[in-house]
Amino acid sequence: MSSEKTEKTDKIKITLESANLVYTWKWNITNELCSICRCELQEECIECQAEINCAASGCHIAWGCCGHAFHQHCIFRWLKRQQKCPLDMSEWSTEKIT
Ligand SMILES: [Zn+2]
Ligand SMILES: [Zn+2]
Ligand SMILES: [Zn+2]
After folding, report:
1. CB 96 within 8 A of CB 64
2. Which CATH number is 24-97's, of 3.20.20.140, 3.30.40.10, 3.40.1190.10, 3.20.20.70?
3. Which ligand minimizes its atom distance to the CA of 78?
């Protein structure tokens, strides 16, 4: 009689893939793009350019506490669906509107 004992060692190797995040965008803040509509923040948002919004009060920039900035119109539309920053998925709270 032989009692064979097979020990299973399930080693799950978690390989962390180093995501190649591009952080080099910050070299020129003045040319920053709104990641939602892909238009420059200095310009009007894509809705205002298409005259969907009556931009009587202008198209403002909304800055989040995470440091990201979007057109106020763009982030407002986004926040209707989820209260998160589109870029880092952290909880969005508007720090200032310029
Ligand atoms: Zn935009
Ligand atoms: Zn706008
Ligand atoms: Zn963010």
Report:
1. no
2. 3.30.40.10
3. 1
